[in-house]
Amino acid sequence: MTPAKSRFAPGTLGHAVDQGAADLAAAGIDTARLDARLLTAHVLGRDASFVLTHPETELTTAQQDAAQNLIARRAAHEPVSRILGEREFWSLTFRVTAATLTPRPETETLVEDALARIRAMDREGEVLRILDLGTGTGCLLLAVLSELPRAEGLGIDISPDAVAVAADNAQRLSLGARARFQVGDWTAGLSGPFDVILSNPPYIAEADRGTLPPEVLGFDPHGALFAGSEGLDAYAAIAPQAAKILAPGGIVILELGQGQEAAVAEIFRRAGLIPDGTRADLAGIPRSFAAIAGGG
Ligand SMILES: C[S@@+](CC[C@H](N)C(=O)[O-])C[C@H]1O[C@@H](n2cnc3c(N)ncnc32)[C@H](O)[C@@H]1O
Fold first, then answer.
1. Could you say which of 18, 21, 73, 114 would form a disulfide bridge with 78 (CB–CB 3.0 to 4.6 Å)?
2. What are phi and psi of 208, to 5 degrees?
3. 174 alpha carbon to ligand 1 midpoint, in Å?
4. Do 188 and 55 sit in the same domain of this protein?
């Protein structure tokens, strides 16, 4: 640890944040000061804004040690969300663990897409049956259910530990009465029909493993990331299964990796579904892909 320049006295919150920010910057963390604020404030059970308004707060030795411990974990590239054990998605708080992908902001594009489509069909007041494949924390299903008071959902994941986290998140968000979670290999054993299928499947090509930042490669579960040589294996598995269990006129909405829209549309067309466009994320990247079952 290189001693940081700080205008605050040693032992104060302001000093701990200055020291933490210096350590994180030295470790190559781009968001060093913000992360130091979040982590140090967390030790006090406060949010980051407390650091700005109360920098003179004296820390006990135990609090200083705890803050240093969290800073050391972040310096080793553990994401802040994993250190805190939670992440915000769709303005809801989700518990995250080593078994779950940390929800990403761009995945909110699928929630927007699903809600816009359901509202355009004037179906938001119906008892819709929603299936979320590869549910992880349950963030997609639970965000959509939070907006549709009569809808019911089932979340599937191949990881029993992820399923347990998703079920816990449903309880914490008071959505447990309308959301069930179970272990499964995509739709195996399910008969449907479902009105809406959501999925953010693994879609990273094995060859791109080396391009991932340490925060992702070292801390997200690999079963949530990789999907064969081109990143398309999960779409290829899901498409024919979705075609079998969608209700007539039902929709499947999937997250896309960058540049995958044409290949994914072709996979779903071949499975007998009708591709129905994409929705871009805030960076302008087509992120959400929809296909419709005929006969509606
Ligand atoms: C990219 S993560 C998405 C997690 C969450 N839905 C989200 O958007 O943050 C993909 C998820 O698919 C799950 N998964 C991978 N293969 C699966 C399979 N064959 N059947 C069911 N789930 C699977 C992984 O365990 C992981 O939780």
1. 73
2. -90, 5
3. 23
4. no
How many A from CA of 130 to the centre of ligand 1?
16
Nearest CA to ligand 1 atom 5: 136
- In terms of Cα–Cα distance, which of 260, 268, 254 is closest to 232? 260
Q: Are residues 182 and 227 in the same domain?
A: yes
Note the pTM of the prediction, 2 decimals: 0.95
The tally of domains found in the chain comes to 2
Q: What whole-number distance in Å separates Cα of residue 93 and Cα of residue 104?
A: 13
- Full residue range of the structural domain in which residue 206 is found: 89-292
Query: Can you tell me which atom of ligand 1 is nearest the CA of 102?
Result: 9
- Domain boundary (34, 52, 76) is at 76
C-alpha triplet 99, 39, 47: angle, nearest 5°: 105
Q: Tell me, in angstroms, the distance from the centre of ligand 1 to residue 117's CA.
A: 23
Does one domain contain both 122 and 45?
A: no
